[in-house]
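Researcher: Next entry: Outer membrane protein beta-barrel domain-containing protein (Peredibacter starrii).
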Amino acid sequence: MVRILLLLALLLQVSCATKYIVPGNRFLTPESQGQALRGQFEFQQTSANQLTVDTSQGTVDQGVKYSDLSRSGFLLSNSIFDQLDVYWSHIGGANSMVGLKLQFLGDSRVAKTTGHKMSIAGALGENEHETEDESVEFNLGGKEFLLLYGYRFSDMFMTYSSYSMATYSFDGDIRSSDPGLNGADPSFNTKIQSLSAGLELSYAAAFAKLEATYQQLKTNDTKDKSRIIIGYSIGLSW
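Model: Predicted structure:
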């Protein structure tokens, strides 16, 4: 299973390593997996934010340009004990994030009880990239913190929401025939605040999620951007 997931992560990054990409939907619900060594895997289809360094003036001092694009990804979660999960989240072209989720209100997923659920989560990730023509090397790091709430109506239906704060850092080194760009080392920090709302439908081990997210993005030397993102995921739990 681990080898398959590592191959999937590699495939999702092929031809995307040149992109400065930060994720959109997160698909995290407040329920922990429950007990110990229980888990779930889900495939995601969502929108992401592509940020391109603006070199139109022959420098790297003009900030970044935002664009929207569709991306696939995955989320793997596994319980450490009843109320605590470790998770690995990856969106194609962005950096992988590994984090912990602690549920402090309500029962875990395996209990299948109705009622209110709340948890907190935090994740970190960092990757080094190089463009195919070796003209740019850059490091992309990220960290995010989330507060999650949900209400399970039955063993098959749950609504959930989350508020998250994330920071992504881009540090690059450019090698170019343009003397104005050669040796430049662009550095950008993107702060993202997100409000998400979603629903989860499940039957036996299978489940599906539909999620809408409102995001505000702030990057140094760049005009702020707001957007609404809709995505879905499907998966299996065990």
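Model: Note for the record: The chain has one helix and eleven strands.
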